[in-house]
Amino acid sequence: MVAIGKVAVIGAGVMGAGIAAHIANAGVPVALLDRVPDGAEDRNAIAAGALSRLMKSDPPAFMHRANARLITIGNTEDHLGLLAEADWIVEAVIEDLAIKQQVYATIEATRREGSIVSSNTSTIPLSRLVKDQGERFRRDFLITHFFNPPRFMRLLEVVAGVDTRPEALEVISEFADLKLGKGVVACKDTPGFIANRIGIYWLQCSVTLALEMGLSVEEADAVIGRPMGVPKTGIFGLLDMVGLDLMPHVLSSMAQALPESDPFHEIHREPELVEEMVAKGYTGRKGKGGFYRLKPDTREKTKEALDLKTRQYRTAGKPKLKSVAAARRGGLKALVTHQDLGGRYAWAVLSRTLSYAAGLVPEISDDPAAVDQAMRLGYNWKYGPFELIDRLGAGWLGARLTAEGRPVPAFLAQAGERPFYRPQGRRLQVLRSDGDYHDLARPPGVLLLCDVKRAGRPVARNPSASLWDIGDGVLCLEFHSRMNALDPFSLAMIGKALRIVPQSHKALVIHNEADNFSVGANILLVRLAAMVRAWFLIGWLQRKGQEVLQALKLAPFPVVGAPSGMALGGGCEVLLHCDALEAHAETYVGLVEAGVGLVPGWGGCKEMLLRWSANPKRRGGPMPPVVKAFETIGMAQVAKSAAEARDLCFLGPDDGIVMNRDRLLAAAKAKALALAEGYRPPDPAELALPGPTGRCALSLAVEGFRLSGKATAHDAVIGNVLAGVLSGGHTDILDRVTEAGLLALEREAFMALVRQPASLARVAHMLKTGKPLRN
Asked: Which residue, among 428, 409, 417, has the nearest Cα to 392 in the 3D structure?
């Protein structure tokens, strides 16, 4: 199969530039081209401006700033030679068929034989794009529909034409999977493909019905949010994030593309309110605000919401809907059967959306699993439409629709009382449009913990963690407390793994499929113990964490961490004590204890000193690694990607980075098995540290930050305590400090800080607001 070695993107708008940045994230050189502006001195001005914006974007488009060097900017007049070098050419110009076809003429006259061309279109059918194009172009052409922002949104919808050669589809799908980390969903050539076809209908339903039923924006978002497995932005918050100025164009395009018989037309309304807001500059987060805003001309960041009746802003509130409370206890069915306003709204939106999705099979796809994957990855739903139907019951949903005199989609009626998904041992089967169940096949190289869990029982389990046998002599330790915060149960399961693995297994992988690997130690336990002055309990938990993680590091078998999402505080310390890591590219790692008034207490200080001391870039005696560790911990630095984590020594030079999260566990298992051959645990290390002179130098720097206003009074207290740990206490430069000695310094420092009211105030503030207190 032909590998993708170079890529060209034509169109340096928001999407084109974002696609180019993410291809660079994959380590692949990419040319970013756009037209020559009229009368411009810099003929590359459009592409140059796009690259400049990429470098400043927040959230960042690049996983590492160095990736920008892989982008070559140019224009479509002077740099057509870059197209001739490309294996894949992505067209990402405006949604105008005539302009796209002009671009295709330029591409076809320049590209080399066998290169693949794709369009990022979301509204124009492929059949229209290739009309009047030659056979060579049609054979090499397909649609690759990315979602914005391309770095973070995992969905890639791929559409092949009747003439597209199978190898082109295979090459792009494999590249997108392995290199770009995408969940590739094959779509039919229908309006909006899958995700936008359903997603735009859902958006319009939610907004239209909220206005008609008289809900406030906060009430609508409370219902169309976490109770349905939708991100907490809900519906109006989502529109603010996407941009209200896009909504009229998207709705208009969909209305024009869909046949008159489509149910979309029943709920389509001209968005007069949105047009009025956009005209006044209220385009959402990128403008003066949207359905929500921060109160202007005030220092306090007071959140305001738009009153949909008066169209005036007021202080945003937290609605108290009994239906939402019922959903927390009884799930989705409790929400949609509740008779308050929220329950009636939930049923009105969800019944229409699920009916619409069911009615689109087999038009948009023969496979409900593909539909569900598209909605999970494209709209960040926790459950796809057919997974939601299973949570209600297909028979129950059909019966309620019938009782209300509403049509039941043929595919839903065909399911009857059967679920759309059913387990068969370790396999999961899905009901397709032919009326039969089919195995849900995983691509080669994909191992999911959910499949392992479906097939059997855990080796061991407690309220916060479990051990699973993932085959070939490897156990997987899974954290599953709330946000995977670590507590005595988590530590106990690590201890159990340390006893079980040597008896019957070869290696241990630490991994879970939650949104975050672990947000750290459960600081609520610290606060509760401090409130009753149970310092001995805090001391026990801190010492226990050190003992367990040090035993993990020195275990007689290899331990591989496989994180994704946030790995903060204690979660980061777990990873620091692993032999190796296979980290998802979107892993955000940091020792953030300073934000809650503390220092790392489970070996984090020790491990950062060891890592910076072993870093080949460090020069000049014992002080440079102490300074680097001090900066990393004292400033609570958090890597914004696995690539940045390597710069900060949270990942080592030999640790792996996996772009596709679905491939993470398999990569970690393979590394664990490779390490198991002839494995020997590491020897305890010793360090030469500067002692009091080093502490004095760091303390002087901290005082300078405090006097200049860059550090608060309690920041200085924490910095001085941290300086004492990292400089080695009362050691002398000629002495060696052992790991046990550093752990003792950590314990002393942690217990000194946890007794201070200012530290406990930071803990309380973090628990209440999720943000650090600057006291």
From this structure: 417
Q: How confident is the model at residue 618 (pLDDT cuts 50, 70, 90)?
A: low
* Distance, CA of 655 to CA of 646 (rounded, Å): 8
Q: Check residue 775 and report its DSSP letter.
A: -
SS3 (DSSP) at 303: strand
Q: Is the peptide bond before 150 cis (omega within 30 degrees of 0)?
A: no
Same-domain pairing of 285 and 336: yes
What's the gap between Cα 711 and its chain centre? 31
Residue with tokens 């502006």: 37
Contact 229, 382 (CB under 8 A): yes
Residue 602 lies in a domain: no
Asked if 414 and 510 sit in the same domain, the reply is no
**Contact (CB, 8 A) for 564 and 661:** yes
The CATH number of the domain holding residue 388 is: 1.10.1040.50
**Is 157 found in the same domain as 212?**
no
Q: Which residue has the tokens 């890529």?
A: 7
CA pair distance 649, 655, nearest whole angstrom: 11
Total domain count, the chain: 4
Q: Which residues contact 41 (CB under 8 A, 6 or more apart)?
A: none
**Cα→Cα distances 409→262, 359, 436, Å:** 13, 5, 17
**Statement to judge: residues 455 and 475 lie in one domain:** yes
pLDDT digit string, tens, across residues 741-754? 999 999 999 999 99
DSSP H or E segment with residue 612: helix 604-614
584 domain residue, yes or no: yes
Helix (H) / strand (E) containing 479: strand 474-479
CB 604 within 8 A of CB 553: no
User: Do 179 and 26 meet the contact criterion of CB atoms below 8 Å apart?
Assistant: yes
**Is the separation of the CB atoms in 560 and 668 below 8 Å?**
yes
CB 509 within 8 A of CB 668: yes
Indicate which CATH number applies to the domain containing 12: 3.40.50.720
In a domain, 33, yes or no: yes
What tokens appear for 202 in the block?
Answer: 């859902």
**Backbone dihedral region of 543: left (phi > 0), alpha (psi from -120 to 50 degrees) or beta?**
alpha
pLDDT digits (tens, 9 = 90+) for 340-374: 999 999 999 999 999 999 999 999 999 999 999 99
Q: How far is CA 276 from the centre of its chain?
A: 33
Domain extent at residue 76: 7-186
Q: What Cα–Cα distance (Å) separates residue 349 from each residue in 129, 224, 342, 387, 715? A: 34, 9, 11, 16, 49
Summarize pLDDT for 316-329 with one digit per residue, the tens: 999 989 999 999 99
Residue 563: per-residue pLDDT: 98
Supply the DSSP symbol for 442.
P
Handedness of CA 164, 165, 166, 172 (dihedral sign): negative
For the chain, the first-to-last Cα distance in angstroms comes to 59
Of 168, 186, 204, the domain-final residue: 186
